[in-house]
Protein backbone atom coordinates (compact mmCIF):
# COMPACT_ATOMS: atom_id res chain seq x y z
CA UNK A 1 0.00 0.00 0.00
CA UNK A 2 1.61 3.27 -1.08
CA UNK A 3 1.16 6.25 1.20
CA UNK A 4 -0.78 9.11 -0.33
CA UNK A 5 -0.85 11.35 2.73
CA UNK A 6 1.13 14.54 2.76
CA UNK A 7 1.99 14.76 6.47
CA UNK A 8 5.55 13.89 7.59
CA UNK A 9 6.14 10.20 8.25
CA UNK A 10 8.38 8.26 10.60
CA UNK A 11 10.60 5.47 9.31
CA UNK A 12 8.14 3.01 10.86
CA UNK A 13 5.28 4.62 8.93
CA UNK A 14 7.12 4.34 5.61
CA UNK A 15 8.06 0.67 5.94
CA UNK A 16 4.66 -0.27 7.33
CA UNK A 17 2.72 1.51 4.58
CA UNK A 18 4.76 -0.16 1.84
CA UNK A 19 4.03 -3.64 3.19
CA UNK A 20 0.33 -3.49 4.03
CA UNK A 21 -1.56 -5.84 1.70
CA UNK A 22 -5.01 -5.35 3.23
CA UNK A 23 -6.14 -3.05 6.05
CA UNK A 24 -9.73 -3.29 7.19
CA UNK A 25 -11.15 -1.02 9.86
CA UNK A 26 -10.91 -2.33 13.44
CA UNK A 27 -8.75 -5.27 12.35
CA UNK A 28 -5.07 -6.12 12.15
CA UNK A 29 -3.32 -5.40 8.87
CA UNK A 30 -2.25 -8.17 6.52
CA UNK A 31 1.47 -7.39 6.33
CA UNK A 32 3.75 -8.77 3.60
CA UNK A 33 7.01 -10.29 4.86
CA UNK A 34 10.15 -9.92 2.74
CA UNK A 35 12.39 -12.37 4.62
CA UNK A 36 11.55 -15.25 6.94
CA UNK A 37 14.39 -16.65 9.06
CA UNK A 38 13.86 -20.07 10.65
CA UNK A 39 15.78 -22.32 13.02
CA UNK A 40 15.29 -25.73 14.57
CA UNK A 41 13.46 -24.81 17.79
CA UNK A 42 10.37 -22.83 16.73
CA UNK A 43 9.79 -24.27 13.24
CA UNK A 44 9.01 -28.04 13.60
CA UNK A 45 5.40 -27.55 14.71
CA UNK A 46 4.86 -24.98 11.96
CA UNK A 47 6.04 -27.34 9.24
CA UNK A 48 3.92 -30.13 10.74
CA UNK A 49 0.89 -27.84 10.52
CA UNK A 50 1.54 -27.23 6.82
CA UNK A 51 1.91 -30.94 6.18
CA UNK A 52 -1.34 -31.76 7.95
CA UNK A 53 -3.17 -29.17 5.84
CA UNK A 54 -1.50 -30.20 2.58
CA UNK A 55 0.11 -26.78 2.10
CA UNK A 56 3.52 -26.02 0.64
CA UNK A 57 5.75 -23.12 1.67
CA UNK A 58 4.51 -20.11 -0.27
CA UNK A 59 7.89 -18.57 -1.16
CA UNK A 60 10.82 -20.81 -0.21
CA UNK A 61 13.32 -18.38 -1.75
CA UNK A 62 12.30 -15.79 0.84
CA UNK A 63 12.93 -18.26 3.66
CA UNK A 64 16.38 -18.95 5.12
CA UNK A 65 17.18 -21.61 7.71
CA UNK A 66 20.09 -22.32 10.03
CA UNK A 67 20.79 -24.44 13.09
CA UNK A 68 21.64 -22.14 15.97
CA UNK A 69 19.95 -23.16 19.21
CA UNK A 70 20.22 -26.93 19.82
CA UNK A 71 23.83 -27.05 18.72
CA UNK A 72 27.09 -28.26 20.30
CA UNK A 73 29.30 -25.65 21.94
CA UNK A 74 32.36 -27.69 20.96
CA UNK A 75 32.90 -30.08 18.04
CA UNK A 76 30.24 -28.38 15.95
CA UNK A 77 30.26 -31.22 13.41
CA UNK A 78 29.41 -33.84 16.06
CA UNK A 79 25.76 -33.40 17.09
CA UNK A 80 25.85 -36.89 18.60
CA UNK A 81 27.11 -35.15 21.72
CA UNK A 82 23.68 -33.50 22.10
CA UNK A 83 20.67 -34.91 23.92
CA UNK A 84 18.03 -36.86 21.99
CA UNK A 85 15.56 -33.95 21.68
CA UNK A 86 18.18 -31.63 20.22
CA UNK A 87 19.24 -34.24 17.64
CA UNK A 88 15.59 -34.74 16.64
CA UNK A 89 15.10 -30.98 16.21
CA UNK A 90 18.15 -30.72 13.95
CA UNK A 91 17.06 -33.65 11.79
CA UNK A 92 13.53 -32.28 11.50
CA UNK A 93 14.91 -29.01 10.18
CA UNK A 94 16.99 -30.88 7.60
CA UNK A 95 13.96 -32.88 6.48
CA UNK A 96 11.61 -29.90 6.38
CA UNK A 97 14.02 -27.75 4.38
CA UNK A 98 14.65 -30.57 1.91
CA UNK A 99 10.91 -31.16 1.46
CA UNK A 100 10.11 -27.50 0.81
CA UNK A 101 13.22 -26.41 -1.09
CA UNK A 102 14.49 -24.04 1.61
CA UNK A 103 18.16 -23.10 1.81
CA UNK A 104 19.66 -24.57 5.01
CA UNK A 105 22.94 -23.46 6.55
CA UNK A 106 23.94 -26.79 8.04
CA UNK A 107 26.05 -27.40 11.13
CA UNK A 108 29.70 -26.85 10.36
CA UNK A 109 29.30 -25.42 6.87
CA UNK A 110 31.12 -22.19 6.04
CA UNK A 111 27.99 -20.04 6.28
CA UNK A 112 26.54 -21.71 9.38
CA UNK A 113 26.09 -19.62 12.51
CA UNK A 114 23.74 -17.64 14.74
CA UNK A 115 20.78 -16.60 12.60
CA UNK A 116 20.97 -12.93 13.59
CA UNK A 117 24.67 -12.83 12.80
CA UNK A 118 24.83 -14.69 9.49
CA UNK A 119 21.80 -13.07 7.81
CA UNK A 120 23.44 -9.62 7.68
CA UNK A 121 26.84 -11.12 6.87
CA UNK A 122 25.37 -12.87 3.83
CA UNK A 123 23.69 -9.69 2.60
CA UNK A 124 20.17 -11.05 3.10
CA UNK A 125 19.15 -7.96 5.07
CA UNK A 126 18.69 -4.59 3.33
CA UNK A 127 16.91 -1.32 4.21
CA UNK A 128 13.14 -1.13 4.02
CA UNK A 129 12.49 -4.85 4.45
CA UNK A 130 10.10 -6.61 6.79
CA UNK A 131 11.80 -9.55 8.50
CA UNK A 132 10.46 -12.11 10.97
CA UNK A 133 11.78 -15.14 12.82
CA UNK A 134 10.54 -17.37 15.60
CA UNK A 135 13.02 -15.68 17.91
CA UNK A 136 12.52 -12.52 19.95
CA UNK A 137 15.92 -11.04 19.07
CA UNK A 138 15.02 -10.69 15.40
CA UNK A 139 14.97 -7.00 16.30
CA UNK A 140 18.74 -7.13 15.59
CA UNK A 141 18.13 -6.54 11.88
CA UNK A 142 16.48 -3.19 12.54
CA UNK A 143 20.02 -1.81 12.52
CA UNK A 144 19.73 -1.82 8.71
CA UNK A 145 16.51 0.18 8.58
CA UNK A 146 14.30 -2.92 8.55
CA UNK A 147 11.12 -3.61 10.47
CA UNK A 148 12.26 -6.88 12.06
CA UNK A 149 10.55 -8.67 14.93
CA UNK A 150 10.08 -12.05 16.56
CA UNK A 151 6.96 -14.17 16.10
CA UNK A 152 5.38 -17.22 17.71
CA UNK A 153 5.22 -20.75 16.29
CA UNK A 154 1.66 -20.36 14.95
CA UNK A 155 2.77 -17.18 13.19
CA UNK A 156 5.77 -19.01 11.72
CA UNK A 157 3.27 -21.34 10.10
CA UNK A 158 1.23 -18.40 8.77
CA UNK A 159 4.28 -16.83 7.12
CA UNK A 160 5.43 -20.15 5.65
CA UNK A 161 1.97 -20.66 4.16
CA UNK A 162 1.21 -17.15 2.92
CA UNK A 163 4.33 -14.93 3.18
CA UNK A 164 2.05 -12.61 5.15
CA UNK A 165 1.19 -11.97 8.77
CA UNK A 166 -1.67 -10.37 10.68
CA UNK A 167 -0.25 -7.46 12.69
CA UNK A 168 -1.46 -4.40 14.55
CA UNK A 169 0.71 -1.38 13.88
CA UNK A 170 2.93 -0.49 16.86
CA UNK A 171 3.43 3.06 18.10
CA UNK A 172 6.69 4.95 17.48
CA UNK A 173 9.27 5.80 20.14
CA UNK A 174 12.31 7.97 19.40
CA UNK A 175 15.43 7.15 21.42
CA UNK A 176 17.76 10.08 20.73
CA UNK A 177 21.38 9.39 21.72
CA UNK A 178 23.87 12.25 21.57
CA UNK A 179 27.53 12.82 22.40
CA UNK A 180 30.88 11.08 21.97
CA UNK A 181 31.24 7.74 23.74
CA UNK A 182 33.83 7.89 26.55
CA UNK A 183 36.70 5.42 26.46
CA UNK A 184 35.70 1.98 27.71
CA UNK A 185 31.99 2.62 27.05
CA UNK A 186 30.29 0.76 24.20
CA UNK A 187 26.99 0.11 22.44
CA UNK A 188 26.09 -2.55 25.02
CA UNK A 189 26.36 0.08 27.75
CA UNK A 190 24.01 2.38 25.81
CA UNK A 191 21.25 -0.19 25.58
CA UNK A 192 21.69 -1.39 29.17
CA UNK A 193 21.45 2.24 30.30
CA UNK A 194 18.23 2.72 28.31
CA UNK A 195 16.64 -0.40 29.81
CA UNK A 196 17.71 0.60 33.32
CA UNK A 197 16.12 4.01 32.76
CA UNK A 198 12.73 3.08 31.27
CA UNK A 199 12.39 -0.48 32.59
CA UNK A 200 11.72 -3.80 30.91
CA UNK A 201 8.19 -2.73 29.95
CA UNK A 202 8.95 0.86 29.00
CA UNK A 203 8.75 0.22 25.27
CA UNK A 204 5.70 -2.05 25.28
CA UNK A 205 3.56 -1.56 22.18
CA UNK A 206 6.21 0.56 20.47
CA UNK A 207 9.04 0.34 17.96
CA UNK A 208 12.17 2.20 19.03
CA UNK A 209 13.86 4.39 16.45
CA UNK A 210 17.41 5.20 17.54
CA UNK A 211 18.57 8.62 16.35
CA UNK A 212 21.29 11.13 17.14
CA UNK A 213 25.01 11.71 16.63
CA UNK A 214 26.10 8.78 18.80
CA UNK A 215 24.10 6.30 16.76
CA UNK A 216 25.47 7.72 13.51
CA UNK A 217 29.03 7.22 14.79
CA UNK A 218 28.48 3.52 15.55
CA UNK A 219 29.51 0.76 13.15
CA UNK A 220 26.94 -1.79 11.97
CA UNK A 221 27.87 -4.40 14.56
CA UNK A 222 27.36 -1.88 17.35
CA UNK A 223 24.02 -0.82 15.90
CA UNK A 224 22.94 -4.46 15.78
CA UNK A 225 23.78 -4.86 19.48
CA UNK A 226 21.51 -1.94 20.38
CA UNK A 227 18.61 -3.08 18.18
CA UNK A 228 19.01 -6.67 19.42
CA UNK A 229 18.18 -5.72 23.02
CA UNK A 230 15.24 -3.43 22.19
CA UNK A 231 13.03 -6.37 23.06
CA UNK A 232 14.45 -6.37 26.60
CA UNK A 233 12.84 -2.96 27.15
CA UNK A 234 9.50 -4.34 25.97
CA UNK A 235 9.64 -2.87 22.46
CA UNK A 236 8.36 -4.77 19.44
CA UNK A 237 11.45 -3.86 17.44
CA UNK A 238 14.30 -1.38 17.04
CA UNK A 239 15.05 0.75 13.99
CA UNK A 240 18.01 2.78 12.76
CA UNK A 241 17.75 4.70 9.49
CA UNK A 242 20.34 3.61 6.89
CA UNK A 243 23.24 5.91 6.05
CA UNK A 244 26.71 5.76 4.49
CA UNK A 245 27.88 3.33 7.18
CA UNK A 246 25.03 0.99 6.24
CA UNK A 247 25.76 1.25 2.53
CA UNK A 248 29.50 0.59 2.99
CA UNK A 249 28.71 -2.56 4.97
CA UNK A 250 26.20 -3.83 2.41
CA UNK A 251 28.54 -3.05 -0.51
CA UNK A 252 30.92 -5.74 0.82
CA UNK A 253 28.28 -8.43 1.23
CA UNK A 254 27.95 -11.46 -1.08
CA UNK A 255 25.75 -10.87 -4.12
CA UNK A 256 25.73 -7.07 -3.66
CA UNK A 257 24.50 -5.33 -6.79
CA UNK A 258 26.97 -3.43 -8.95
CA UNK A 259 27.01 -0.39 -11.21
CA UNK A 260 23.69 1.18 -12.15
CA UNK A 261 21.74 -1.42 -10.18
CA UNK A 262 23.62 -0.49 -7.01
CA UNK A 263 22.99 3.24 -7.57
CA UNK A 264 19.31 2.60 -8.15
CA UNK A 265 19.17 0.60 -4.93
CA UNK A 266 20.94 3.37 -3.00
CA UNK A 267 18.44 5.93 -4.23
CA UNK A 268 15.59 3.83 -2.85
CA UNK A 269 17.35 3.07 0.45
CA UNK A 270 18.02 6.77 1.04
CA UNK A 271 14.27 7.37 1.39
CA UNK A 272 14.10 5.21 4.51
CA UNK A 273 14.36 7.85 7.21
CA UNK A 274 11.91 9.76 9.34
CA UNK A 275 10.83 13.05 7.79
CA UNK A 276 12.10 16.18 9.49
CA UNK A 277 8.81 17.08 11.17
CA UNK A 278 7.60 13.53 11.78
CA UNK A 279 5.81 13.08 15.11
CA UNK A 280 6.73 10.20 17.42
CA UNK A 281 4.39 8.85 20.07
CA UNK A 282 7.14 8.93 22.71
CA UNK A 283 10.67 10.26 23.17
CA UNK A 284 13.65 9.68 25.45
CA UNK A 285 17.05 11.39 25.38
CA UNK A 286 20.40 9.90 26.41
CA UNK A 287 23.59 11.94 26.83
CA UNK A 288 26.40 9.39 26.49
CA UNK A 289 29.09 11.78 27.68
CA UNK A 290 27.81 10.96 31.18
CA UNK A 291 27.68 7.22 30.54
CA UNK A 292 29.93 4.64 32.22
CA UNK A 293 30.32 0.86 31.78
CA UNK A 294 27.08 -0.81 32.88
CA UNK A 295 26.64 -4.06 34.83
CA UNK A 296 23.38 -5.73 35.86
CA UNK A 297 22.97 -6.87 39.46
CA UNK A 298 19.58 -8.62 39.32
CA UNK A 299 17.49 -11.02 37.28
CA UNK A 300 16.29 -8.83 34.42
CA UNK A 301 18.22 -6.49 32.09
CA UNK A 302 16.57 -3.44 33.65
CA UNK A 303 18.42 -4.03 36.92
CA UNK A 304 21.59 -2.30 35.79
CA UNK A 305 23.91 0.32 37.30
CA UNK A 306 27.18 2.06 36.50
CA UNK A 307 30.08 -0.18 37.42
CA UNK A 308 31.19 2.20 40.20
CA UNK A 309 27.72 2.55 41.75
CA UNK A 310 26.36 0.68 44.77
CA UNK A 311 23.74 -2.05 44.48
CA UNK A 312 20.33 -0.43 45.17
CA UNK A 313 18.48 -0.72 48.46
CA UNK A 314 15.02 -2.34 47.92
CA UNK A 315 13.52 -0.37 50.80
CA UNK A 316 14.14 2.84 48.85
CA UNK A 317 11.74 1.60 46.14
CA UNK A 318 8.33 3.22 46.71
CA UNK A 319 6.41 0.71 44.59
CA UNK A 320 5.76 -2.34 46.80
CA UNK A 321 5.65 -4.81 43.91
CA UNK A 322 8.96 -3.52 42.53
CA UNK A 323 10.42 -3.63 46.04
CA UNK A 324 9.51 -7.31 46.35
CA UNK A 325 10.89 -8.07 42.89
CA UNK A 326 14.20 -6.43 43.76
CA UNK A 327 14.41 -8.23 47.11
CA UNK A 328 13.79 -11.57 45.37
CA UNK A 329 16.42 -10.80 42.72
CA UNK A 330 19.08 -9.84 45.26
CA UNK A 331 18.32 -12.97 47.29
CA UNK A 332 18.80 -15.14 44.20
CA UNK A 333 21.99 -13.30 43.26
CA UNK A 334 23.16 -13.41 46.91
CA UNK A 335 24.08 -9.72 46.79
CA UNK A 336 23.82 -7.17 49.57
CA UNK A 337 22.17 -3.76 49.05
CA UNK A 338 24.52 -0.78 49.26
CA UNK A 339 27.52 -2.96 48.39
CA UNK A 340 29.86 -2.41 45.42
CA UNK A 341 29.31 -4.44 42.28
CA UNK A 342 32.81 -3.62 41.06
CA UNK A 343 35.24 -6.11 42.51
CA UNK A 344 32.64 -8.86 42.98
CA UNK A 345 34.26 -12.27 42.24
CA UNK A 346 33.18 -14.11 39.09
CA UNK A 347 33.60 -17.77 38.13
CA UNK A 348 32.68 -17.74 34.45
CA UNK A 349 33.12 -15.29 31.58
CA UNK A 350 30.90 -15.71 28.51
CA UNK A 351 31.70 -13.86 25.29
CA UNK A 352 29.01 -14.66 22.75
CA UNK A 353 25.26 -14.75 21.97
CA UNK A 354 23.35 -13.00 19.19
CA UNK A 355 23.96 -9.73 21.04
CA UNK A 356 27.75 -9.61 21.21
CA UNK A 357 29.42 -12.41 19.24
CA UNK A 358 30.28 -10.63 16.01
CA UNK A 359 33.91 -10.46 14.98
CA UNK A 360 34.23 -6.82 16.08
CA UNK A 361 33.02 -7.78 19.60
CA UNK A 362 35.56 -10.58 19.82
CA UNK A 363 38.35 -8.34 18.53
CA UNK A 364 37.65 -5.73 21.22
CA UNK A 365 37.89 -8.39 23.88
CA UNK A 366 40.98 -9.92 22.28
CA UNK A 367 42.80 -6.56 22.30
CA UNK A 368 42.28 -6.31 26.04
CA UNK A 369 43.31 -9.95 26.61
CA UNK A 370 46.36 -9.96 24.31
CA UNK A 371 49.53 -11.04 26.06
CA UNK A 372 47.78 -11.72 29.37
CA UNK A 373 46.24 -14.71 31.13
CA UNK A 374 42.80 -15.04 32.68
CA UNK A 375 42.64 -15.28 36.45
CA UNK A 376 42.97 -18.74 38.00
CA UNK A 377 39.67 -20.33 38.96
CA UNK A 378 37.60 -18.52 36.33
CA UNK A 379 35.40 -21.24 34.93
CA UNK A 380 29.74 -23.06 35.57
CA UNK A 381 28.14 -24.72 38.43
CA UNK A 382 24.98 -23.90 40.42
CA UNK A 383 25.56 -20.81 42.53
CA UNK A 384 28.51 -19.60 40.46
CA UNK A 385 28.69 -16.11 39.02
CA UNK A 386 29.03 -15.45 35.29
CA UNK A 387 29.70 -12.14 33.61
CA UNK A 388 28.10 -12.41 30.21
CA UNK A 389 27.76 -10.44 26.97
CA UNK A 390 24.37 -12.04 26.30
CA UNK A 391 20.99 -10.31 26.53
CA UNK A 392 19.20 -11.98 29.44
CA UNK A 393 19.98 -12.72 33.07
CA UNK A 394 16.88 -14.42 34.47
CA UNK A 395 17.21 -17.18 37.05
CA UNK A 396 18.97 -20.20 35.53
CA UNK A 397 19.64 -18.48 32.19
CA UNK A 398 23.18 -19.86 32.08
CA UNK A 399 22.63 -23.11 33.92
CA UNK A 400 20.51 -24.18 36.88
CA UNK A 401 21.28 -21.95 39.84
CA UNK A 402 23.73 -19.86 37.81
CA UNK A 403 23.92 -16.13 38.52
CA UNK A 404 24.53 -13.79 35.60
CA UNK A 405 25.89 -10.24 35.38
CA UNK A 406 25.26 -8.67 31.97
CA UNK A 407 27.97 -6.39 30.60
CA UNK A 408 29.85 -5.35 27.47
CA UNK A 409 32.63 -7.43 25.84
CA UNK A 410 35.19 -4.95 27.20
CA UNK A 411 33.94 -5.31 30.77
CA UNK A 412 33.72 -9.09 30.43
CA UNK A 413 37.28 -9.33 29.12
CA UNK A 414 38.64 -7.04 31.85
CA UNK A 415 36.85 -9.18 34.45
CA UNK A 416 38.34 -12.37 33.02
CA UNK A 417 41.83 -11.02 33.66
CA UNK A 418 41.19 -10.22 37.29
CA UNK A 419 38.62 -12.86 38.29
CA UNK A 420 36.28 -10.13 39.52
CA UNK A 421 34.03 -7.47 37.97
CA UNK A 422 36.50 -4.93 36.62
CA UNK A 423 36.12 -1.52 35.05
CA UNK A 424 37.76 -1.83 31.60
CA UNK A 425 38.76 1.83 31.72
CA UNK A 426 41.38 0.93 34.32
CA UNK A 427 43.12 -1.20 31.69
CA UNK A 428 42.63 1.29 28.87
CA UNK A 429 43.94 4.48 30.42
CA UNK A 430 40.45 5.89 30.86
Give a short overview.
The chain is of the alpha/beta class.
Q: Overview of this structure, please?
A:
The protein has a five-stranded parallel β-sheet with strand order 5-4-3-6-7, covered by helices on one side. A four-stranded parallel β-sheet has the order 11-10-9-12. The chain has a three-stranded antiparallel β-sheet with strand order 1-2-8. The chain is built from 13 helices and 17 strands. The chain has two domains: 11-282, Aconitase, domain 3 (2-Layer Sandwich), CATH 3.30.499; 293-427, Aconitase, domain 3, CATH 3.30.499. It is α/β, with parallel strands linked by helices. The N and C termini lie far apart (51 Å). Strand 13 and strand 14 form a beta hairpin. The chain has helices at residues 11-19, 44-53, 84-100, 115-121, 153-162, 187-198, 213-217, 220-228, 244-251, 259-269, 320-333, 359-369, 409-418; strands spanning 20-22, 29-32, 35-38, 63-66, 103-105, 130-133, 147-150, 164-167, 171-178, 206-211, 237-239, 282-287, 294-296, 304-306, 348-350, 385-388, 403-406. Helix 2 packs across helix 5 (153-162), helix 6 runs parallel beside helix 8 and helix 12 packs parallel to helix 13. It is globular and about 55 Å long. It is 31% helix and 16% strand.
Amino acid sequence: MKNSRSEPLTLLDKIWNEHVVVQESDAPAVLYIDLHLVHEVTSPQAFTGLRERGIKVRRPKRTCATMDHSTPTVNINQPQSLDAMARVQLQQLRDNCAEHGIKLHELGCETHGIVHVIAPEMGLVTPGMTIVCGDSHTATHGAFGCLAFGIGTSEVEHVLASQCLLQNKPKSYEVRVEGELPIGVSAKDIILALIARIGTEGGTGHVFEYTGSTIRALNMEERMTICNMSIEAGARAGLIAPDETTYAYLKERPNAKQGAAWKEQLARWSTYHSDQDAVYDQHVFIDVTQLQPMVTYGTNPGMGIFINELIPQPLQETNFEKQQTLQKALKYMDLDPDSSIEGHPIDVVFLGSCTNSRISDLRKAAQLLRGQKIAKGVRLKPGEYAISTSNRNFEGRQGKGGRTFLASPLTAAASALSGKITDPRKLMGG
